[in-house]
Amino acid sequence: MAEYLVEQFLLHATPYKETSALVTGFSRELGKVRYVAKGVYSKSNKYKGLTQPFTLFSCRLRGNGELKSSFATEALARAVPLQGNALYCAMYCNEVLVRVLPPEEPNENLFSFYQETLQRLSQQENPEPILREFELFLLQEMGAAYDFASDASSAEPVMTEYVYDYVPEYGFTRAGSSRRQQQFYGADLLAIGQQHWTPDSLKAAKRFTRLALSPFLGNKPLKSRELFQKPL
To answer: 3-75: what CATH class?
Structure first.
C-alpha cells in the first residue's frame, strides 16, 4: 500500500462515522487530496485542532485509491490569524479550490501562492485585490490564462478607448453584439493585466473572473459568498 508524507492545508472537513472526519486537503506534494482522519473528534485525540483550516501541517497518508487514510499528523506552524471579512475571503478561496482542482495533481506554484494569499489576508489589507489576484493566478495555473493587452482576433494592442468582448477560451476582441456583461473597456483590461487596481479595474476584474471561473465552478452557488458582508 502506497504511503506519502505531505505538507498541507485543510480545505474542508465533514464528520464521518462517530469520531472521524472526511477531509479534503491541499498538499504541496500531491495537490488536492481526500482522506479519512480517524478519531479526530474523540475526546482523547491530541490532533483535534488540526481539523481546522488555515494551519500548515504534515501528515502521512496511506492508500492506493483517491480516498486515503491519515496518521502521524503534526502542526508545522500556527494557524494563520484570520478574522471578519479576511476569514470569509479565505473560506472563499478554500471553497473555490475544492470545486475546481482535479484530484492529486501537484502544483507547487499554486500551493505557495495560496499560502501567500492567506498571509496577505491576515495583514488586514484590502481583500479585493488579493482575491482578484488569487483568481487570476488560479486561472493561469489551470491553463485558462488570457492576454489582456492584445486583441485575440487581430493581435493588435488593446486600446484604452475601445470596448472589447470577452470570448471564453479565446480572449478579448473588439466589441460586436455581445451581451454587455461580457464587454470590457480597454483601459480596464490593461489595468487588470498589470494588476493596477482602481475601483473600476477591480469591478471589471471581479466580473471577468466570475465569467472565466464559471465553467469550472458549475451552477451550484458558493456558500462562502452568502457569508460575506460584501459580495465576493
So the answer is: mainly beta
CATH superfamily for 84-227 is Recombination protein O, C-terminal domain (1.20.1440.120)
C-alpha cell belonging to residue 231: 459580495
pLDDT digits (tens, 9 = 90+) for 66-96: 999 888 788 898 899 999 889 999 999 999 9
Nearest to 188 by CA among 162, 167, 227, 169: 162
- pTM over 0.70? The answer is yes
Count of other CB atoms within 10 angstroms of residue 151:
19
Q: What is the pLDDT of residues 35-56, one digit of tens each?
A: 998 877 776 666 655 678 999 9
57-62 vs 67-75, strand pairing mode: antiparallel
